[in-house]
# Entry
Amino acid sequence: MTRQQAGSALRRLARVRVTGRGGALICAGTVLIATGVVLDLPDVVGLGAAGVLAVAAAWATLGWQRLDAGRGALDVERDIEPDPVVAGRPATTRLTVRARARTGAAYERLARLRLSEQAAHELAGPSGIRAHVRAHPDRIAVEYSLSPVRRGRWPLGPVLTTRTDAFGLARTTQPLGRATRVSVWPRTTLLAARTAALGDIDRAAVGARLASSDDSVLREYVPGDDPRRVHWAGSARQGRLMVRADESAGLRPVTVLLDRRLLAPPPEERSGAHAPARTVVDDGEWAVELAASVATSFLEAGHPTRLIATTTTPVRTEHAAGRRTGRAQLLDATVDLSGLRGSEADEALTTTVRALRADRVRSEVVVAVLGPLGSGQRHAVASLGADGVAWALLVVPRASGARHDVDPTADDLRAAGWRVAACTPDTPAERAWSALTERAA
# Structure
């Protein structure tokens, strides 16, 4: 036996506890042993010793056995739908603990097994997990609902099992199976990406022309589409409102830039110098949800879209295309985002903007979700306005002491050709987007 195996066996033994019945048997056995010794009655001593040894044997057997090995081995299967899950929307989880082989030992273990699922608070939500359990001879099926409350990647499992020996003398709790890392996408809101202002921009870029039936395809209507492009015959066939989309219209690509200074840093990097952790996290999650809503709405409207978060080591990011795979690509990019602070945050913003200018095509639209910028960062970001269309959603900090750079940031960006709208955290995404598009109209 290796050292690791020995350590695992000792941990299993340490988890075993004597039940009330086992404790009573130990007490009775001890009394019988003492009585037998005093009265010199070997049979009474043997009877008491048998009771104590029975409890010891049950304790050792439960501690030594592994639920995932041997003739009675059990396996765990966990299925989550949908996967990834979305913050604020319930997800159904189906957990199955089944016998690996059809043996009496496996069925006996299942019959005495009680299960409990471990889940991060970010997945279980404030009300926790309430499960519906169905026991079968060869498996235990559990179904429950997750209520994810925050974007990220959170652990689910392993399963905690509680079982007793055949006589109910000892009880043990052991983990079974592995933990599953559940990806949680941010909430998104469908915005009217096909605004009148953006339509004017596209026509200026590609020239106004009317589409013919030879170069148009149908897609589902999204808010902001021109009602004159509704294809009534196609809508009748599909059972939902459809519009014509020109394959040759050349919709401009869109880049959504997210300033990671708005997000909370990883837990080990937080300090008392910043705002309270809960406020920082809420503001940051709101900013991520706003950026993700803008990106996915442009994608739904047919624009090739990418979402870029500031980083000190930027890499080339392709524009997503295709509603289903493209949406997954955009939202996957947000799952592991965390905040940056201080000089690292400033360097990340400057480096990302420089890389974006080198990689950007002239017709590209940039929509940035930014916090207030210092003078050096304002100059770097403002330079994007000289290369094409640039819009900015400027997040106004909650703390009054951090707002002194809001107006200078907005003024410098507007002077460089940006369209800017300032919004406070927790502003509904539709309202923040309307404030920006109305300014751009």
